[in-house]
């Protein structure tokens, strides 16, 4: 990482000192996927990733056009939604993009104010503030478009004590595979088109009040074949981090370009989930059939003590164990981090997951980018899309 990145990263608190956060975000509320078959997708996320049955809305609850399964693991809530007939506009989304993330919902104190502040600053409306009620109270939601057809929904639930949202019933299942140690969403990454990264960086700054606290250019993220550029956007309290990638010119096709081709536009590239024990989590996920990117070469693991330097003294994990599971390691001034990336979780090479354990480090694994991208390129070569 360059000097500039470090000073910006560690000056985050200073950036916000005295500044008014016009869009206070309490956390990620839920992530909604539009999928072709929500029932089967729910089974996959329970079986493979250890999500728990949480809430349901469908024909049985009076929802005639769509069905949604809500899954939970610690603080993470996934909503899997499918259309129930050909008239639903969700069909168009699925035809164009395949299964993917439609909504990144953000938990707010005041969904009306969030809508007003962001649309005033230029956001395109997805849903005007809407109140849903049931016996447990009311939830106010509003939504704006971000990149592509992706949406940020603002969720105000301070007057609600139901399970999830009005209209959903509790989902009790007889099939309950154990959790795998996912704790919360660490960050969510968006891929945008050629030359669009700075447009969206500015959008997050102007419309959402975020700051750009880390940047990687195509000289830092490059391999023999392809390159990308990335900027990490972060909200006022640091809880929400959205890195934004754009492809960069290389000898062959960038993985970002491959994503854009198959998703047919910008969208969410990966969801990074935090765990306290990545060795246990990854061993568990592997035993459940989750596929990860192939391991970097031996030399990568041989080089870890040099790359970690002093952090080796605090490192509890055995490098051999990490290598056995293909877990990657990176470090910055404040500590180290462990991470691994799944293969895409649908047939189109689009969305995937990252599992991350932070041991003080605040970065995103820049030191791993080269090894990681070479691994992705081997996969791309097999798909014939490099
Ligand atoms: Fe990531």
From TrEMBL:
SUPFAM superfamilies the UniProt entry points to: Glyoxalase/Bleomycin resistance protein/Dihydroxybiphenyl dioxygenase
A Pfam family it matches: Glyoxalase_4
KW Transferase (keyword) present: no
Molecular function GO terms recorded: 4-hydroxyphenylpyruvate dioxygenase activity; metal ion binding
Keywords of the record: Dioxygenase, Iron, Metal-binding, Oxidoreductase, Pyruvate, Repeat
Lineage: superkingdom: Bacteria
Gene3D superfamilies named in the record: 2,3-Dihydroxybiphenyl 1,2-Dioxygenase, domain 1
Keyword Iron part of the UniProt annotation: yes
Family label: Belongs to the 4HPPD family.
Annotated protein name in UniProt: 4-hydroxyphenylpyruvate dioxygenase
Naturally occurring in which organism (per UniProt): Aequorivita viscosa
């Amino acid at each position: 990482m360059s000097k500039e990145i470090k000073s910006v990263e560690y000056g985050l608190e200073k950036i916000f000192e005295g500044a008014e956060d016009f869009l206070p975000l309490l956390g990620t509320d839920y992530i909604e996927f539009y999928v072709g078959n929500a029932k089967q997708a729910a089974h996959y996320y329970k079986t493979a990733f250890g999500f728990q049955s949480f809430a349901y809305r469908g024909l049985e609850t009076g929802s005639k056009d769509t069905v949604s399964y809500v899954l939970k693991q610690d603080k993470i809530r996934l909503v899997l939604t499918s259309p129930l007939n050909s008239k639903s506009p969700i069909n168009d989304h699925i035809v164009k993009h395949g299964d993917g993330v439609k909504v990144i919902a953000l938990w707010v104190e005041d969904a009306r104010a969030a809508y007003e502040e962001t649309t005033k600053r230029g956001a395109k409306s997805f849903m005007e503030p809407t109140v849903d009620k049931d016996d447990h109270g009311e939830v106010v939601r509003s939504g704006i478009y971000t990149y592509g057809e992706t949406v940020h929904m603002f969720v105000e639930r301070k007057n609600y004590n139901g399970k999830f949202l009005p209209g959903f019933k509790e989902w009790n299942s007889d099939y309950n595979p154990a959790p795998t140690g996912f704790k919360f969403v660490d960050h969510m990454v968006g891929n945008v088109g050629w030359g669009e990264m700075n447009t969206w960086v500015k959008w997050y700054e102007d419309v959402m009040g975020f700051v750009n606290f880390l940047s990687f250019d195509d000289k830092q993220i490059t391999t023999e074949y392809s390159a990308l550029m990335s900027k990490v956007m972060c909200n006022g309290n640091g809880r929400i981090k959205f890195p934004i990638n754009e492809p960069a010119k290389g000898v062959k096709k960038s993985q970002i370009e491959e994503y854009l081709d198959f998703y047919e536009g910008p969208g969410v590239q990966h969801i990074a989930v935090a765990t306290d024990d990545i060795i246990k989590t990854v061993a568990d996920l592997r035993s459940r059939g989750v596929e990860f990117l192939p391991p970097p070469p031996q030399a990568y693991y041989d080089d870890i003590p040099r790359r970690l330097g002093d952090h080796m003294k605090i490192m509890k994990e055995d490098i051999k164990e990490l290598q056995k599971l293909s877990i990657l390691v990176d470090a910055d001034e404040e500590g180290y981090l462990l991470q691994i990336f799944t293969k895409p979780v649908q047939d189109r090479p689009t969305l995937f997951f990252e599992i991350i354990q932070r041991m003080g480090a605040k970065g995103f694994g820049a030191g791993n980018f080269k090894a990681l991208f070479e691994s992705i390129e081997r996969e791309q070569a097999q798909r014939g899309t490099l």
